[in-house]
């Protein structure tokens, strides 16, 4: 199943950075891409905060707005690049005064407030390591990640500290300081008020020499089993952040950019803070929670030109603004400034791409990446055709391949070697040559899991895909999600996408249920839109609809209605949890579980991965 290609002629209103895909790929090198950044003065290395803030503050961009913050009360405040340079210098001096230096971990547990951006970039200025945590995490996942990450400093609010950290503070052996944003530090023993510390700190700071390979960011990602993995990223990641925002998000200097992902996740950090500031654009920061009318109002009133959001959030908007209808809600706002819409965090169903074109006047561009890759790897570009349902094609400088899979769905490794599948249409594991600057340098304190992520010079993503004859990649599913039914390989995403085309379906999750004859049968859990009832007639209609779209070998045999599908906190339907509940199995790690309401939103030396465990860098392609 594939929708008709949306031709590039109907897309860009601004000349895109990537117009001729083949030519751009042929002429690209990571060494040349580094030319988009400045480097520390005097050849002292490369520091993300210098590239994102200080170089702009020392240029004609000094008075340009870096952050446009929309409060919960809709009050708007602006922070210029010069302002941000001074506040981040103050925070770097605060850390230095507390004895926090190179490689020490600074954890943030904050919502989308202006202070978060100051803390993130001030930490990087100080050559300390930033570890962002999602503020909706419960006490256990917060404690676990702070312990694994050797947290030295925690920056949070009084409310979050009381509810999630205070009771177990004594067990966090490495934690030296807790800094409280806002009121309340005076009532919390062992904490310090951030505002008072900032008021006493100087607003200039000289960034120490920073190697491009110094650890800068620690992002935790949960697997289906086991403890969370801390992915180590370095300052050189800025090169990939800059290039990917240029190509995949088509950022221009005069753009107003809004990434709805929470900065507690890698998307919100890489593309909500770092990448757009590297380009010197204006970043919209919305402190409010998701509400369809609010989001349309933010897009209109802040004159957002480039919008990066999640498929689950788009589906929430689709519920309130179906493609068939008068579109009263979005049409009551002036969205003329919007010129590019992209989506990530999970596969984007074709219906959402076409909904964007019909309702917003712009198709939604899907792209693919992971916490480990640190930056977008595969994308649908502003200046190229869109094939709805496809992840797109690899960015210039990224080499992707499809590897032959074994019985477990993962790449088949024989004698240390893998087999690259050249023929189109064959399903295998997506693999990447680890030669881009934002490639993670290993899992913190976990060399075995680091080593298991690589084989024969490839990074193994764990995602099953197929590549068509023209080089577009199509997501099939995670290796442990794919269903084998009567000898057919069924990708849950394809079935979910087909069901989403029916006007009754708001969302779906698809798993395999064991069957003595077929091995597994495809079962779909469906959330209905308002106005549709969970009746036998509705179930029969959906089964017939899917059978017509997909054919009997792929279509679901069973449909269950569920208005509260389990989601991760970043909005992905947890198929693993659906499967466990269906089969009566242990649910495993549920620290990232949350019934989704879209968020205004898919290490120092010895502690870092050992050199032997690190994948080769971009100069070793």
**Any low-confidence stretches, pLDDT <50, length ≥5?**
595-616
**Quantity of strands, as a count:** 26
Share in helix: 25-40%
Range of strand content: 15-25%
Do you know the CATH architecture of one domain? 2-Layer Sandwich
The biggest sheet amounts to:
9 strands, mixed
Q: Mind telling me the CATH superfamily name of one domain?
A: ANL, C-terminal domain
Explained architecture:
This protein is of the alpha/beta class and 621 residues long. Among the domains are: 399-432 and 449-480, Luciferase, Domain 3 (Luciferase, domain 3, Roll); 483-583, ANL, C-terminal domain (GMP Synthetase, Chain A, domain 3). It has 18 helices and 26 strands. α3 (48-57) packs across α4 (81-97), α3 runs parallel beside α10 and α9 crosses α10 (266-278). This is acetate--CoA ligase. Residues 57-444 form the AMP-dependent synthetase/ligase domain.
């Amino acid at each position: 199943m594939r929708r008709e290609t949306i031709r590039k002629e109907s897309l860009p209103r601004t000349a895109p950075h990537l117009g001729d895909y083949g030519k751009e790929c042929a002429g690209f090198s990571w060494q040349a891409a580094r030319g988009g950044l400045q480097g520390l003065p005097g050849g002292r290395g490369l520091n993300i905060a210098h590239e994102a803030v200080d170089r702009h503050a020392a240029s004609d961009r000094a008075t340009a707005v870096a952050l446009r913050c929309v409060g919960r009360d809709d009050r708007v405040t602006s922070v210029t690049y010069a302002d941000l340079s001074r506040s981040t210098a103050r925070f770097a001096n605060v850390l230095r005064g507390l004895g926090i230096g190179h490689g020490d971990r600074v954890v943030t547990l904050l919502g989308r407030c202006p202070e978060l951006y100051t803390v993130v970039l001030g930490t990087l200025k100080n050559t300390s390591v930033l570890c962002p945590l999602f503020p909706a995490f419960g006490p256990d996942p917060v404690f676990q990640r702070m312990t694994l990450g050797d947290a030295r400093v925690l920056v949070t609010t009084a409310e979050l500290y009381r509810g999630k950290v205070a009771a177990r503070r004594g067990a966090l052996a490495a934690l030296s300081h807790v800094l409280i944003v806002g009121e309340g530090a005076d009532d919390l023993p062992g904490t310090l008020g951030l505002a008072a510390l900032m008021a006493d700190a100087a607003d200039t700071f000289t960034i120490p020499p920073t190697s491009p390979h110094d650890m800068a960011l620690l992002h935790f990602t949960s697997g289906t089993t086991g403890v969370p993995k801390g992915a180590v990223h370095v300052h050189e990641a800025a090169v990939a952040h800059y290039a990917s925002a240029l190509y995949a998000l088509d950022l221009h200097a005069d753009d107003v950019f809004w990434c709805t992902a929470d900065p507690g996740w890698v998307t919100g950090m890489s593309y909500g803070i770092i990448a757009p500031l590297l380009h010197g654009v204006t970043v919209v920061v919305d402190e409010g929670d998701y509400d369809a009318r609010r989001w349309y109002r933010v897009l209109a009133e802040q004159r957002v030109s480039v919008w990066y959001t999640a498929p689950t959030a788009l589906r929430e908007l689709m519920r309130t603004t179906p493609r068939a209808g008068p579109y009263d809600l979005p049409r009551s706002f002036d969205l003329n400034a919007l010129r590019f819409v992209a989506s990530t965090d999970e596969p984007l169903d074709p219906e959402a791409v076409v909904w964007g074109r019909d309702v917003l006047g712009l198709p939604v561009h899907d792209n693919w990446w992971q916490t480990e890759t640190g930056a977008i790897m595969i994308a649908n570009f502003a200046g190229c055709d869109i094939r709805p349902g496809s992840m797109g094609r690899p960015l210039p400088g990224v080499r992707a391949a499809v590897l032959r899979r074994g019985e477990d769905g993962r790449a088949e490794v024989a004698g240390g070697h893998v087999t690259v599948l050249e023929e189109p249409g064959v399903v295998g594991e997506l693999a990447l040559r680890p030669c881009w600057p934002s490639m993670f340098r290993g899992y913190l304190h976990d060399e075995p899991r680091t080593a298991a992520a690589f084989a024969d010079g490839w990074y193994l993503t764990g995602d099953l895909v197929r590549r068509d004859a023209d080089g577009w990649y199509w997501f099939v599913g995670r290796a442990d999600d794919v269903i084998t039914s009567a000898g057919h390989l069924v990708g849950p995403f394809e079935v979910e996408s087909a069901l989403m085309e029916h006007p009754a379906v708001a969302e779906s999750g698809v798993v395999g249920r064991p069957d003595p004859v077929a091995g597994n049968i495809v079962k779909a859990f469906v959330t209905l839109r308002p106005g549709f009832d969970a009746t036998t007639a509705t179930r029969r209609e959906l089964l017939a609809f899917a059978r017509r779209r997909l054919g009997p070998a792929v279509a679901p045999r069973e449909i269950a209605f569920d208005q509260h599908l389990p989601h991760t906190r970043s909005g992905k339907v947890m198929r693993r949890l659906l499967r466990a509940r269906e089969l009566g199995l242990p649910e495993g790690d549920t620290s990232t579980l949350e019934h989704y309401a879209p968020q205004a939103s898919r290490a120092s030396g010895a502690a870092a991965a050992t050199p032997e465990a690190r994948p080769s860098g971009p100069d070793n392609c």
